[in-house]
Fold:
Amino acid sequence: MNDTLLTYCLCAAVLAIPMKLYLRSLKKREALARAAAEKGKVYSEGPKAQHPHIDVEFCIGCQLCTTVCPEGDVLAMLGGKAVIVNGYKCIGHGLCADACPVGAISMVRATPSMGADMPYMTDEYETSIPNLFIIGELGGLALIKNAVNQGRESIDTIGKRLSTMGTARSIPNVYDVLIVGAGPAGISASLRAIENKLHYLTLEQDEIGGTVAKYPRQKLVMTSPVEFPMYGKFKKTELSKENLLAFWHQVLQRVDFKVRTGEKVEEIRKGPDGVFDVGTSKGRYRAHAVILALGRTGTPRKLGVKGEELPKVMYRLIEADHYVNKNILVVGGGDSAIEAAMGLGHQHGNTVTLSYRKEAFSRIKERNAKRMEECMRTGKVTVAFNSAPVEFKPDSVVLDVNGSPQEIPNDFVWIFAGGTPPNDFLKKVGVQFGMRDMTAEASSEAKRAVQSASPLVRA
Structure:
């Protein structure tokens, strides 16, 4: 009897110790999650683009979704359920939704309040104008994976519609589809059009590669496995800008890629026959459908600071290693500004100052935050928080730092204040703005999916 009691006591002790450690660990994780949530409230009104919607009714608290996100603590566990704590960091990878074993996570677009400055789009990426589509980051989604998928899917939608047109499709000198933009989304759409044997043309105002072509040299581009038209499964998850452009050119050389570069679209009108008339800087084209893959950055946003017209003030950095032994100011607090400052800070003899108007970085990737901490610690980059440029002079700049003016020597300035999206152009075309809130729809879809699953999955 005593031996049995002793055995029970020992077993209880053995079980109690790991359980206590687990509960302590859980409590610590929840405290960190709540702190992250409070930080998220301070720095953001919430997700501004595609983001996960978690149906807590079906969430089983397995934590898989919190471990797969490459952007850091977007999701966390609170009360045994997954919640969004830093929605502003989310750029729509969708890995959390893929990892959820019970389908409790769906990727949804921004709420109407967040999407007020976004063009209205259906689930098929169609705007308020029938057969006029928007794909890529102009529609509110970042990531090359999303752009490639949207390019492929929009062409499939157009192809199905064209197949039902009969003789109306055979109007002389009318393309099946006109694709505007030769970035990730536009290239994907073009290749899918070739695959589906559509009569198409791609127009690009700059060079093939779109926004990617404007990235700094050797910038690492994060991707996810994706089905790339005319190629198949693309499995690399990290590569340089140059490698990605080389891959695209390699694929495009295999096919008859019909593209006209240096041609900016200036006008889009839809005639009474339903055919689009597209005017560019060099000519006019007609098409049954139009896909806009323009990107969202548009024209670089200027600060309106005195001296901003000086030739030393720039808005795009391509070759960081061309600048050595210089006094440099970088303005901005996003990933582009951070990466530019770090790239310039690693060049020989440079003194780099980063000016950011807020008290801390709040919207940068986790890996950039860690690298910037190291650059600040080693003195490669000096960060002036709560600051803003007041005047750019030929040999110096004046910064307002915590309300006090400071003048520092300066040779070059890079401003990363975002870009002005082509909203005026879209409104002139007739595209309506403001997206419906898809959270309720996603919740309904998740419930239907779980209810239709097998008893084993539901269990």
Summary: The chain has three domains: 24-111+435-459, 132-298+421-433, 300-418.
